[in-house]
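A further point concerns the way the authors explain their paired sequence and structure data. Since the whole study asks how a given chain folds, the encoding of that fold should be made plain. A single example would do more here than another paragraph of explanation. An entry of this sort, consisting of the sequence and the corresponding backbone structure tokens, reads as follows:

_____
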Amino acid sequence: MSAKINTSVTLHKGRVFELLRENITLDNGVTIDLDLIRHPGASAIVPLSGKNSLIMIKQYRHAVGGYIWEIPAGTFDGDETPIDCAKRELTEETGFSANDWHKLGEITPLPGYSNERIHIFLAADLIPARQNLDKDEMLDVHEITMENALEMIRKGMIQDSKTICGLFIAAQWLDN
């Protein structure tokens, strides 16, 4: 199944993403207007700080009205590769770099209206580095056991989708 794009109009071009309105005709003959977000992509990292511990951040997110628990993540910078983005974001947000990297998978968090894909990595053998937050980033770095992080998901304390996916995929990967 596919769609024929009849028209595409940029409604807004922001710092990170572009908002479009596309008129499309589906294979079944139905023609509709859709508002879509075009996103450059992102990487998210589950940083292991020990055998059963990881680094998480508690970050202010204005859109949801407060601080939320997350794994480190960020948007691609230009033509940056997913692994280069992951390495940069880990250092910028947590003040650690890693010697050991494993790609765990990719997720599409909002397929109904966005093409964003988030590449999820596991980072191990952490070493201290210089944290370099963006001027609009307000976050605290925490070390948490994997068991506590998974319990935080079950209790609803972690609601961020990339974090939930990343932690579940990492826990599965580590069990194997």
